[in-house]
Amino acid sequence: MYIYIDILLITNLYTNFFLLKTTAKLVHMPLRNSKCIIAALAGSLFSLIILLPQLNSAVLLIIRIASAAVMILVSFSGKTIREIYRTSLIFFFVSFIFAGFEYGISILFNNGNMLWHNSTLYVDISMITLVISTIISYVTICIFRYYLDSKNIGDYEFTIVITYKGKSTTISAVGDTCNNLTDVFTGKPVIVCGKEAISGLLDNEESKLICDKDMLSFVDGWRLIPFSTIHSDGILPIFKPTAAIIKCSEKKIIKPVDVYIGIVNKNMDNAVFNPKILN
């Protein structure tokens, strides 16, 4: 059969992009689109080994590991060796799920334009087939993520290092599974803390406008989300920090998290986060 290089590279670029995004979701790590695209493009180039003569299994294994390593290192540069190792395992798991669904749907649609060579699958499939397989795989993995999250406990003492506009502060925190606040636009979790705890991070304008939520929503990087508790409900101002790292000496955790910071206009002994974000 004929192999079209453009189809080979584009489908692999598309698939690698969603593999990396799904991996980032599972490990709760931020991943910029620009880095994800570069990593996915680098990974798609490895698919060109399908054009080579048959290689032995050892060489193919080395190439596959190298391909995954390049994508992970580009996507999650700056992480610790332990985090890279854990992320790599999750990436291989996600790749297995995606490949299985893509192959299965191709057979279901009776697609005969398939070739397996040098551990690379070339399938001349329609974009709709690729999209359907991606959606099904993504939903399956999200269900798995929900199952893992439901088994978490947060009975430990934590600290959170928050960086914003070149300033950093460390505040104590507790895990609370009842904190299900998320940003309505991105779906990212929200860590709630008192105004005094992060006052050192805010400029004068932001500090003055904390009480004036209507005006604060017009400040760049800030927005308002609804919240509800047993005792009250209302609107909570949130902002996206440059970085947020959760630490726990008891569990030897040092984990960067992709979150928003919500501020209540009162003193709180501890910031509150959902321990699910640690998985």
Sum up the structure in keywords.
Cathepsin D, subunit A, domain 1; four-stranded mixed sheet; 279 residues
Alpha-beta classification: alpha+beta
N-end to C-end Cα span: 44 Å
How helical, in percent, are the residues?
A: 40-55%
Count of all domains: 2
Query: Could you tell me the radius of gyration in angstroms?
Result: 22 Å
Identify the overall geometry.
elongated
Task: Give, in spatial order, the strands making up the sheet with the most strands.
Answer: 9-8-3-4-11
Count of individual beta strands: 11
Structural summary, described in words:
The chain has 279 residues and is an alpha+beta fold. It is built from seven helices and eleven strands. The protein has helices at 5-27, 33-45, 57-75, 81-108, 127-149, 204-209, 213-216; strands spanning 114-117, 120-123, 157-164, 167-175, 190-194, 222-228, 233-239, 243-248, 253-256, 260-264, 271-273. The protein has a five-stranded mixed beta sheet with strand order 9-8-3-4-11, with no helix packed on it. A four-stranded mixed beta sheet has the order 5-10-7-6, with no helix packed on it. A hairpin with a 2-residue loop joins β3 (157-164) and β4 (167-175). α3 (57-75) crosses α4 (81-108). It is elongated. The chain starts with a helix and ends in a 6-residue tail after the last strand. The model has no long low-confidence stretch (mean pLDDT 80).
